[in-house]
Write a structure and sequence with these properties.
With 168 residues, this protein is of the alpha+beta class. 33% of the residues lie in helices and 24% in strands. It has a single domain, classed as 2-Layer Sandwich (Beta-Lactamase), CATH 3.30.450.40. Strand 5 and strand 6 form a beta hairpin. Helix 1 packs antiparallel against helix 2 and helix 1 packs parallel to helix 4. The model has no long low-confidence stretch (mean pLDDT 94).
């Protein structure tokens, strides 16, 4: 397993993702605690994209999301399904891109400097085990390209890790 990410930030976002995906796949290890793989994934994403101000996982327990591994400022520790962008993504079981979080009804502002966000659910056997949440201080930072590759990452997590065994 590699503990180093090699990404050229001068590349386009798509080229960065294409370079990053196999490296993230190498960071995923079924022989170690799930939390270790999730922690390294957040670090890899934060290290690869300057547009990301915060990246982390919220993990499901009793129909609530609880803060998991992350990179960035201190964050909210629990979010109910259906609340904010993370809870809405979990409830709807779909990726949500928010160009301006100040216009999202019920947005939960863990970092008042955040201006845009993307949240991708982690689904296995139709159950939402958590979400991957990325924030940016820039408006409209995330788009369909990010959605495509972040969904690939979440699919890697749900298929390569025994995510159903995570205990909070």
């Amino acid at each position: 397993m590699s503990e180093e990410i090699n990404v050229n930030k001068n590349l386009s976002d798509e080229e960065i993702y294409q370079s990053l995906i196999p490296q993230i796949e190498n960071l995923i290890s079924v022989d170690e605690p799930i939390i270790s793989s999730l922690s390294n994934i957040t670090a890899a994403l934060k290290e690869s994209f300057d547009k990301i101000s915060w990246v982390g996982f919220y993990l499901t327990k009793d129909s609530k999301l609880f803060l998991g591994p992350f990179q960035g400022k201190v964050a909210c520790t629990s979010i109910e399904f259906g609340k904010g962008v993370c809870g809405t993504s979990a409830l709807k079981k779909e990726t949500i891109i928010v160009e301006n979080v100040h216009e999202f009804p019920g947005h939960i502002a863990c970092d008042s400097g955040s201006n845009s966000e993307i949240v991708v659910p982690i689904i296995k056997n139709k159950f939402v085990y958590g979400v991957l949440d990325l924030d940016s201080y820039q408006f409209s930072s995330f788009n369909q390209l990010d959605k495509k590759y972040l969904e690939i990452i979440c699919n890697l997590i749900s298929t390569k890790l025994p995510i159903e065994k995570i205990i909070l």
